[in-house]
Amino acid sequence: MEEKQNMTAERSLEIIRDSIERSQRTINRNSAIPLIWWGLCVVVFSLFIAYLWKNHGGPVWNMLWAVLWLIGYAGNWIIDKRREGIPTTFVGKVIGHVWTTFGVLCCGVGMLLGFIGSGMLPMELIMPKVYIFGCITSIISLCFGMATTITGFTINNRVIQVCGLIAGIGGFFGALHFPGHAQLYVMAGVAAVGLIVPGLAILMQNQKKEEQTCSSH
Amino acid sequence: MFKPLDPLLHSELRLAVMSLLISVDEAEFPYIKQQTGATAGNLSVQLDKLATAGYIEVEKTFKGKKPCTLCRITPTGLKAFEDYVAALRSYLNISPEGDAKND
Questions:
Q1: d(Cα A164, Cα A142) in Å, to the nearest integer?
Q2: What is the pTM of this model?
């Protein structure tokens, strides 16, 4: 970009618009990769744990979810290292906080239920007296859908908003219909619709905008 | 009556830098260089001009052992940018809501 000072007002507005759009595309593209990564992790773990649960010893294999967090964060750390230098925006921060909150809540509830299941915590301590129908997959699906929908509204992407609603509502009721290991197939579907599809949608949206920019110049 | 355009912002590269910085917390020198397509030398000169005017803050730091230059917009810079855009709108006869006036 050269040092020109005899610009027209139209050219000035064009520079402002192009700079903001180009930067936004770079940032969006980089925020899509972690969504796809975490989505793939959840899909693979769901199907793997479902297989082990069905064929090799029952629900104890759910303890493997703890490994998901380790692998997920290790991959996320590598992704973050590779995109060093990409600045953060307010929108990026909001999306990050939404998904961190989702992760902490699901991890917390999952761990408590895991402690109950393994006998390390008495059930009465967590669910005293009153009978609570606790289907963890339904609750996680609902949170999943909510996080995806908020992401969609934040970056103003209709595809992601719809994916969030489908993942949340579909996952909530779907998990109630499928007992045992089959719930994990629902979880895999929710992760695919709630994370992988939105990630791909962001990438495609960016690509489309880049093509439009290239053709307009 | 047209509002005067800030001469410091009425330059392609400086305007592009300010446009990049308004939407982010801070940006590293290589990122700004990549986004604007400017040469390192030219960009340094223009960043100095913006920093001298108080429109941006330039922080020289280290990332591990590598030197790292961080740039962020200041409240003065943000106000100057808003005034510049308002002035552009008056030239183009665009209302603050974005509608072009016909009369």
A1: 9
A2: 0.74
